[in-house]
Write a structure and sequence with these properties.
Oligomer: homohexamer
Largest sheet of chain A: 7 strands, mixed
Shape of chain A: globular
Largest interface: C-D, 31 and 32 residues
Number of helices of chain A: 7
Strand content of chain A: 15-25%
Helix content of chain A: 40-55%
Radius of gyration of chain A: 17 Å
Distance between the termini of chain A: 24 Å
Structural class of chain A: alpha/beta
Number of strands of chain A: 7
């Protein structure tokens, strides 16, 4: 099975779906993380170029911990726009990897880059299978798109993945984002949102997991509903 | 696996979850339908006693088509009340069957018997596992409660079961409720709701199924969220 | 009364509001369908130009069955963008027809062309009546915009039109989209979504209609609430 | 057409649906208000018996202004319970009047008497048409139940009645509840909720009406969806 | 200021609002916890009577850590019913304490005792201020009712209290429920819900707090909206 | 404290948040209203240029009544687009004023200018604090964004400001928009929406206020949740 996660910034893969990616990789699935940007706006006392380099390296190390391949799409941090041109770039990206499923941000996430990424991926999904849309790679037909977000009231997951056995890997991967941990703990979001980066991730996963009878979990919605064979 | 469906009236099992029950039965699960009442109010030109007899016989034949055992709980049609005494009767019923999962109506169904049944089952679920609650049968510990309803805006299923291969069985079972088909097509609900009993069931199943990529489906919500091992 | 439906692709008029358009036409209203695109991406083993020609012809035949006039707006299938320029084109289109009401897709439809069309129409609606906005046609003042979608959980109609007497016309019109039926049944949406094009439309209309006491219905939301004179 | 409004307390008819009742009465419909209680708890420096007498007289005068008949059901203010016995009393009440439509409180109103009334009426509605349910009056078959509430976020009306021409009558009727105006302005609800009884009613009707293009309106939801013949 | 929390079982005060109660107590407010039951069903290898004694003692120690007084209302665990008689008992309880605000469970909590408590308190709230309702204590007029629940999708708090400085006290109080910790970690709720009692409480408080810029928080909804003097 | 309201058109400040701005100004806060456009499309028998001049003068007088400074951002009425370029202009505007809080339209307002303004402000908010984003003014760090809308079902405020003592000022300021009152009462929105401009504003404020125990109020949602120190 081929899994493609398309995320806005280097640490989004770990924060939102790192346990799920690690779990799929661990059973032998091909997992790829496509980074829209290198997160080159997320720092101070540096330049965009230098930070891009640092964060790309961190992203590669983090993905390696998860067992995922990486690719960088060269959009600009804080400046991803919802345009037809960008949509067609994502069509190319998805066709190149021809995944079974795609993971990305949910559409109502407040961060402008997350929102734009979500909509671009959904729109591209509706085009990748069209034979008459010509591009470098042939059409493909992913089964579904899964959306992730933080366990807050505006994101209400309906698909919950047990990541208990992969929480440690997820946290280990997250710790590779050294430049961001300093930045987030000082600056990121509202005051105490990332006062302790790993404790935050663990609390979210535990709060969500307990509601479903496991210790740690990650949550998703999906574009198409799917069926189960039996109630369990 | 033991499946226990607790429904208010004889035809509710077929209308709401007949395909799912048939599917579980077909793979060898023990499936039981507990009827709160015999639906003895659903007719004319007869008596409650006579209708109860007719409908019990129809329910037995329908359940037989689905591959399910039946039990009758002797509540009164149109008069199920939400009382502690009734809740304790349901504790006894669930403990007697010690199912892995329980199926019942969703709590916001408008029909008063459906509503009362739903709440009695949910409340009983919280008590069946308590060692200090003494009763005829020992404590048991079902994994979850699943709720069914019609595919309308006030019931939004999050668990969808593919019943394509069992739709025919479901319809065949539904047709055993001969006394009700005449009654529903003449009287039931609002004007055209059951103008054609089987076509109604098929339209609902097809509308729901297509949203999830299959021909026919039934939908449920659940008391506890559960996890999946992998995204699919 | 003048009714203007603005739809993204040739078969959207029939799928979403064909019964309502046929009913309005049958009582003598002037009904026009404006097609944003010719749906020229919806096929294989052909070219965009050839498919556009085929589908325009099908759309003309289908609209003729409904009793509607047609106009084509020359946007590109799969590539409708939400731009000020496109909004102004829709201002011109609406002013040209000066309808009493406008029908279009609902804003949260997942298909990118449907979403863009919906927002462009709503935004244009706020501008068509402004005297200071100069254009080829004079200002006009439609009473309301009605939005359509599929009867799924994310589209919850509050205005339901009884189309029982026009369901046959609707299906007949839909069957004119020959090129699409082959395409949809093989490719369209998720697996079984259009396994049988007409059965799908009929199941949706029956599921929705029965909730309101009729055999077949179509559902809408509206931009402005309206009043009734009496409860019925 | 026969309209039956079943309200918990004497002034509820005017507050929630007085304009609609006046409008139906004005066109010649038979309108009846059934008061569950006489509101005999809503005062001070008096007794329940004395207050019941005062408020019954006020209710009769107010209903007379609206053009409605009245009946009193003899439940106790603040103590309406959701029991099978009470439901059967409402079955009798509805069968006695055999209305075309029934109006009552919405189920999630916070006031315990309003909630109980709403549920008792809905449950009774499901029983009034059953031939096998014997009672003093013969079965009847109202078309629908309409629910009213205050225009707050938890009550979201989907049926809006233009009462502009009857707002004056509504306010005149409301002013008959002299004992309540003193009580409500001093005590009722939270601090400023009824600081000026008539201004409150007018603000609510104006806020709701303007959203639908009229000066004053009242809002309802309904048990069954209904259809319209044409979009307007 | 007088704060009265009415909870179903001994440990509910700590789980749901322990930090808030500790914070109010710390600034000198009079805080009382009224326990509907002694939680005498929550154990094994014991009797209801013995467990009631154990848990009352634990509740007293826990409340003492929070700085709260306690009272026991003598309802039966697992068997709180929603009756007029029970409502009047809560009227008496609230009038006796004459609090400024009341805290209790939210109405849609799934646990039957929590649901019944919530509705009984809300209904009692509407009666405590009525002069004509005679009882042992005089009428009182609490300003508002606050509702608590777990930070899951069905409970969406709109009032968030920063309890960072009282999280330690809350956890210390929770640890007094020794008999429950063993019981919950072995039996309580679904599998991993309380695998580690204190870690669970901390994760919930951290997940909720971070969304509002603090380390630990508790969340509430309220019966009446209130105003702020200024935006902050 | 510095308060910055960013509104699409000259009269939006008074309609949506005039009482709140007046209240903050009255206690000595620095309040600025930034007008995206001069509302130069809102008239007839004039030109855009002439109307812009008239409305700018009216806006200055109205803001003066509220006690607020003004700035004009030179976007075009009816043509505000959601572009990266426009977002960066708003970054500059916010950095220039370095406010503690920002007020703007809510994202789901139907008016296209209101929607675009809302999203541009939210997106800009995520960028103003980034050190690596260079611009004319230095980074700043507003605490929160507050969103306003009309008290309809699609806007459900969670922060309510008591403006009773400033309602008169708000209405006085609104009356400065002479050119708009004529226009709105004749043309604006749907038929009776602004039949009496001041009565409309007063009805909305009274309907909202009474729900929270005050005479007049305005309502907001916010980007980040915030905490309270104590329940009140």
């Amino acid at each position: 099975m081929d899994v493609l996660a398309i995320v806005a910034h280097p640490d989004d893969a770990e924060i939102f779906c790192g346990g799920t990616l690690a779990k799929h990789a661990a059973r032998g699935d091909d997992v790829t993380v496509a980074y829209m940007t290198r997160g080159e706006f997320g720092g101070f006392d540096t330049t965009e170029a230098a930070l891009a380099e640092t964060r790309e390296a961190e992203a590669r190390r983090a993905a390696s911990v998860l067992g995922a391949d990486v690719t960088f799409l060269d959009f600009k941090d804080g400046r991803i726009t919802y345009s037809l041109e960008n949509r067609l770039e994502l069509v190319e990206c998805i066709r190149e990897h021809a995944p079974d499923i795609v993971l990305t941000h949910f559409a109502d996430d407040m961060h402008p880059d997350h929102r734009a990424t979500s909509r671009l991926v959904t729109d591209a999904y509706y085009m990748v299978s069209l034979p008459l849309l010509e591009s470098e790679h042939p059409p493909c037909d992913p089964r579904n798109v899964y959306y992730f977000g933080k366990p807050t009231s505006s994101f209400d997951p309906t698909v919950i993945v047990d990541v208990t056995d992969h929480q440690e890997t997820k946290e280990e991967a997250a710790l590779e984002h050294e430049s961001q941990i300093a930045w987030l703990e000082e600056h990121g979001g509202i005051d105490a949102e990332f006062s302790d980066f790993v404790e935050s991730m663990r609390a979210d996963a535990h709060t969500l997991g307990r509601q479903a009878g496991v210790t740690y979990a990650e949550g998703f919605t999906r574009l198409h509903e799917t069926t189960v064979d039996f109630l369990d």
